[in-house]
Amino acid sequence: MATNNRTNQAHAENDLISLGDTVISPVVEVSAEPWALAMTFTRDLAVVTDDIVIPLMPHRIRGTFEAPLTRSVLVSLGLELTAPSEPLRFDGGNVRDDCHGRLLVGVLSDQPTAGFVEAVRFLEAATGRPAYRVPLAGGRLPHLDMAMCDLNGRAWLVSLDGSPGFDLADRASNELFLGRPVIVAGTTDGEQLGCNLVVIANETLPRRMTHSSQSSAGCNFS
Questions:
Q1: Torsion sign, CA atoms 49, 143, 42, 82
Q2: pLDDT for 25-46, tens place per residue?
Q3: In what order do the strands lie in the sheet with 103-107?
Q4: Count of domains for the chain
Q5: Is residue 45 a contact partner of residue 70, using CB atoms and an 8 Å limit?
Q6: 25 within domain boundaries
Q7: Where does residue 142 rank: exposed (0-12), middle (13-18), buried (19+ CB within 10 A)?
């Protein structure tokens, strides 16, 4: 059974890479280095928006090891980096650009540190986008991309478990969602979807491309 699972996973990864090559751009695979521990998500490499690439240093100990690998990978691709004077201690999934010209920044505390505030100001200055703070629940859903997804600027997918205090009647929620439709995901759906959605043109494709039942779960807002 374990062998079959690994085989299915390999096929799914190949399908996803092929899809990216076909409809977006060539896919570059990033391999872990023995000295850099495990880089779980390539989004932890950098904030990328409007052709601006800002390297990150994820929170906790692994960020210290991954930052040199991040820089070497990005430089090897010939990218021009917009680097801050001090490392940006963000987990990659907690800084997202949306289709409305903003940066969405996930926060786990009502009282951000001075370093966090300075980092957000740097992001705003470097990208020219205003930052909007989004409260997160933490725990099993510690990142913004696990709590919500911008569906090509036409609607939002929101996990109630990932974003505490979510209330459409609340003024802050209205400012965040800009009057667009909001699709609410419960506990089970939120864990299955979250950051596993990739928005391409007007289609929303789930991560598991190889299962027809999962593929039919995409939403088309055309």
A1: positive
A2: 787 777 666 666 555 566 667 8
A3: 95-97, 103-107, 131-135
A4: 2
A5: yes
A6: yes
A7: middle
